[in-house]
Amino acid sequence: MMERIEKIKEFLKDNPTDNFLQHALALEYIKTGEDLAARDLFEAILNADPTYIGSYYHLAKLLEKLEQTKLAIDWYEKGMAAAKLAKDQHAYNELQAAYEDLVY
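Above: the chain's sequence. Below: its structure in token form.
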């Protein structure tokens, strides 16, 4: 796992604002238990580019894991709104299902 993290970090040196690489790094951090580093990355991605739909789900799920339910709900709602704007029905449905599982 650490090898993957190091490789992604190397790629990020050349492309520090690449959302795909940052997202991949955040997912690797989750696998190694570095939840706060992952959270920071997901939030940075979405604050810089609210149209990067895939990160909403993972950030909200991570917040659920960290028992930050209110924040998770907020991010699910933001993600659903972004997915709707992007006309990404698949992402919207995934976010809505996770949201409903948490809220109801």
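Helices lie at 2-14, 19-31, 35-48, 54-65, 69-85, 89-103.
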